[in-house]
Amino acid sequence: MSQLIVMGNTHLKGEIQASGSKNSVLPILAATVMIDEPVVIRNVPELKDVQTMISILQQIGKIVTFKDGTVTVKSGEILVGNVPYELVRKMRASFNVIGPLAMICGWAKVGKPGGCNIGQRPVDFHLKGLEAFGFKISEEHGDVTAIIPSEFKKEIIYALPFPSVGATEQLMATAALMAGSHVIIENAAREPEISDLQGFLNSCGASIKGASTPTIEIHGVEKLHSTDYTVIPDRIETGTYLLGALTTKGDVKITSARPDHILALISILEEMGAGIEKDSDWIRVYWRGPLRPVRVYSEPYPGFPTDLQPVMTSALATVEGTSILEENVFENRFGYVDELNRMGAKIKVSSRQAFIAGVHGLSGAEVTAPDIRAGAALVMAGLAADGETVINNVTHIFRGYEKFQEKLGRLGAKMAFYPDEE
Ligand code: EPZ
Predict the structure, then answer these.
(1) Domain check: are 247 and 101 in the same one?
(2) I need a labelling partner for 296 at 20 to 30 A (CA). Which of 314, 317, 329, 393 fits?
(3) Does ligand 1 have an atom closer than 6 angstroms to the CB of 162?
(4) What is the per-residue pLDDT across 310-338, written as a single tens digit (0 to 9) for each?
(5) Strands 282-286 and 275-278
């Protein structure tokens, strides 16, 4: 099992640059399936999840190169409409190729993702939406097959039961190539990554408007063409290091960032009494004295992001008084709390709420990272703790944070990584 050994009693201090957004680049890469001409995507973070999506594109028959943060996708000779479960199992975002792939091959068969450490995470909204578009959906032996209709309806309206990020992206990308159809997606997710996907597809000749509002309107086009597109900075990575600054009573500045994408976080940090300075493309957060406890609700954007919920818990673990964190997106995202409690935190979970009674300090312990964001939360806690923290299963973190050790090292962290023995 991979391990990270983190030295405690650290105050993260310094300046680092935000990486490109993982959750933007994954659906953008999935959408490249529909584009024959060469596509260049810049500011791509070097992450395991990005590699997985690249493997899927290669498996389908695309020719992909990835160098110095730039991915180039070109058409190969064959296009296979089949993505095995093995690749979907590694990363749920793989399922986002099913609509685009079916648009090109007429059909697509993709492994159905199972549950994961943060919840059941079904894909029913993706499938109901595709059915509303006229696709024939069937499931057999753990695979989902989607077949396009002989003709798409002229007017389609589909209202999502919940503003799912992945389903909005799936449906928006698929509809982009439904020539002659006018598609409206209601109750759409409004995350900045949705706007980024719209920006990418429109740069390829798609006709999409409304991203960042609850109603997205798409006029399907015959063909998408080549583009050279730069993805947005990763708001969750930015938020993670800013919360790390507070957890460790430090002072961190993130450049090449988009503070306007983390306004819900900034208002909570203000309420906590953190020092904050920012401009349009950088933000600095620093500890300037004891923080105040807060009540935080995770919600779809523009609410407080569920992906920052675990790192927020680490930051609140040593804030005097009781803070309350309510998780409203995933049903099971407190799996890391027992690990933080092993480090001396006093957190009780009741249903969707975590009650965090601030302690004087944390102490290093051996803990296990259940997922990407919880892994980052344990590292921040370990940096603040007294003594050494051993974090198991740490490869999760590298799925989501580019140059994680290097960036933390630049902020003064001391840690050692031991990869899997196999
Ligand atoms: C995206 O996942 C992100 N992943 C997640 O980031 C993020 O936590 C999540 O959005 C919420 O912001 C990527 O963008 C690659 P959803 P996604 O569909 O699209 C339920 C990270 O750490 N739902 O918005 O899978 C679902 O179970 C990751 O970077 C259905 O019931 O999230 C959940 O409770 C983890 N049926 C809620 O909706 C569906 O068909 C929101 O899920 C789809 C979703």
Answers:
(1) no
(2) 393
(3) yes
(4) 999 999 999 999 999 999 999 889 999 99
(5) antiparallel
